[in-house]
Amino acid sequence: MTQADIRIEVDNFGAFFEAPFAAYGPDSAYVSPLKADLRRYLDKTRNPLFKDPGSDLTYFTAHRGDRVLGRITAHVHGASNRLHGVNRAYFGYFDCADDPAAARALLLAAEEWARARGHDEIAGNFNLTAMQQIGVVTEGFEADPFLDQIWSPPQIARHLKANGYEAVFPMTTFAVDLTRSDPPAIGPKQRAILDDPDFTFAPITRRTIPQRMEEARAVLNASFAENPMFVPVTEEEFHFQAKDMKWVMDPRISAVLHHKGRPAACIICVPDLNPFLKKVRSRMGLLAPWHFLRHRMSNRRAVLIFSGVIPELQGQGINPVVLHRVFMAAKQAGYTHVANTWIADENGPSLAQKEKASAGAMHRLHLFRKSLDPAPIG
Questions:
Q1: What is the pTM assigned to this prediction?
Q2: What fold is seen in the domain 3-170+366-371?
Q3: Is 175 helix (H, G, I), strand (E, B) or coil?
Q4: Most buried one in 20, 100, 206, 209, CB count within 10 A?
């Protein structure tokens, strides 16, 4: 088989959704977002990320005959380029069979799209921003991903390297076995915080979830402001991404800490939905509500989406206080494992926190980047 056998199609959503299922088969660890959610994310008229005039998106699928072999997005996050002073395009949702010709055709399509728009590098996976799923798995392929953890088989990193991409920005996902690990210790610094009436945990109920989520966004933007690749998340973007979270959240296992009545720290933790999504193949059919109820009754896994402390209160022992509360609540609620999305190697404090919690490494991930030569003139 050669690249001449490959047909590239543009903006074919049906093929885009089916591509990883066709490429990896039913026994892989891959789990797709809900089909309706994926359609929303890729709709430039609905996704507020692409209202910025400097942002754009398209997507490609690779076919041989009547078989879909893979997929990829090519997109630009204009706000990120302006904030960080780069001229970068991104690829995302790169899923492909172990087929070098198909992989090359997809990567070339994304590169040509980016080069034609004047960008001098391309990097990914970004599905679709640094605050969503990022990276390509390079080790730990055997670990089943939790919700919001990216997973890819070994050939994806191999295809990227074969096409001139460099592995950068190493990351790791972790999981804590709550049946074997104690929650973070409460020492003198933490006891002082708990005894200080200026610090109070805000109630999280079904009624207050919208308010707590907006407070979480404020903490996210403040606490991540100096992180590489981070771009402040607008209210519209945040609630677009978390549209249905209030229906799947377990209010017992998240926490928002106030200081003098204002949000100071938070941890957003949600039940793992991946076994349910895998069962229904990420489609909301007639039996999906029944499968969801069964999953809800039996699920014992949760995933920590993000944690943060506002800058002026960092270094005072606040994060262990909030993490202790979340872990204790999760244990009392019957959860046995809590995973996180990803932690970069350069984030020493978060890695130290995972070590203290006896967290086990799950996946090793990297971003992959490539410089692009200018498009020829004429």
A1: 0.94
A2: Aminopeptidase (3.40.630)
A3: strand
A4: 20
